Amino acid sequence: MATDPQMRSPETYGEIDPRIEALVHDLIAQVADKWTMILIEVLHDHGEQRFTRIAEKVPGISQKMLTQTLRQMERNGLVVRTIHPVVPPKVEYRLTDLGVSLGEAFCGVWTWAEDHLETVETARRGFDGRATA
Amino acid sequence: MATDPQMRSPETYGEIDPRIEALVHDLIAQVADKWTMILIEVLHDHGEQRFTRIAEKVPGISQKMLTQTLRQMERNGLVVRTIHPVVPPKVEYRLTDLGVSLGEAFCGVWTWAEDHLETVETARRGFDGRATA
DNA sequence: ATTTATACTAACCAAAAAGAGAGTGTGAAA
DNA sequence: TTTCACACTCTCTTTTTGGTTAGTATAAAT
């Protein structure tokens, strides 16, 4: 019995390099993150923006999450952060090419969701109906 | 000040139907879920499998998460669950066409991650280096 | 002299998600 | 007769996540 998650049995779904896999999961988890997706969208549609302008365009986000998400995106090279040394502070965020390309890669999933919206909702209703009965 | 997340100002990134958007986020959040992705992969590579066989192929997953994730996938129409009324119980899970198509839609992101792995890691090292300095 | 704007960080708290472990029903094998 | 396999469910605890609030520096505007 392999209780150690580090240990992989030969039966483990395993032709893929675990390093790649980790990064893939990681990246997808981050991008699929509610806010990251929205921020990519906003930055793509409106171009370079400063902190408060972004916040205004994303209702419901807290300062904390905005900062956190932008930092993460910066760390991954999805945005560049430009500090203008003026007072009051001015910081601008811009999508990098990498950020843009990630947005595009995600279009596949996005359009899948649009295309199969009805199917999924029908499946859900069916399942919920069966469960109630 | 619009503190109500339901209320959308005209400046809100807003040409998209919010119903579609909600479902898209929802779906992506679910698919991007660590386990769902892995389960799609396993079921795709190995075909119809029963509960314990799946568990063996996914080290680190708890019974709880396996059940939960499979149920969610079933509800969304990504898998079908077949109960064989024997004892001890035998339940098999199979990817639906919808499930397969979702896996394919996700390939774009998957390959993006593979293609840009180096870029992302470099960006991270740069960021972390700057932070330490 | 007080207020305002900006882009944050830090501390604290509540809620949600996930893990661990025990329990369940049943028939066949030992 | 005890044990075992299977596919769970239930409960309890831990971890993670996110929100809220307060605070900071500084110069310009009032």
From TrEMBL, chains A, B:
The protein's GO terms of the molecular function aspect are: DNA binding
Q: Does the keyword Transcription apply?
A: yes
Q: Where is the HTH hxlR-type domain?
A: 17-121
Give coiled-coil spans as residue ranges: none
What keywords tag this UniProt record?
DNA-binding, Transcription, Transcription regulation
Q: Which SUPFAM superfamilies match?
A: Winged helix' DNA-binding domain
| InterPro entries according to UniProt | HTH_HxlR, WH-like_DNA-bd_sf, WH_DNA-bd_sf
Q: Which Pfam families match?
A: HxlR
The answer to keyword Transcription regulation applying to this record is: yes
Q: What is this protein called?
A: Helix-turn-helix transcriptional regulator
* Organism annotation: Sphingobium nicotianae
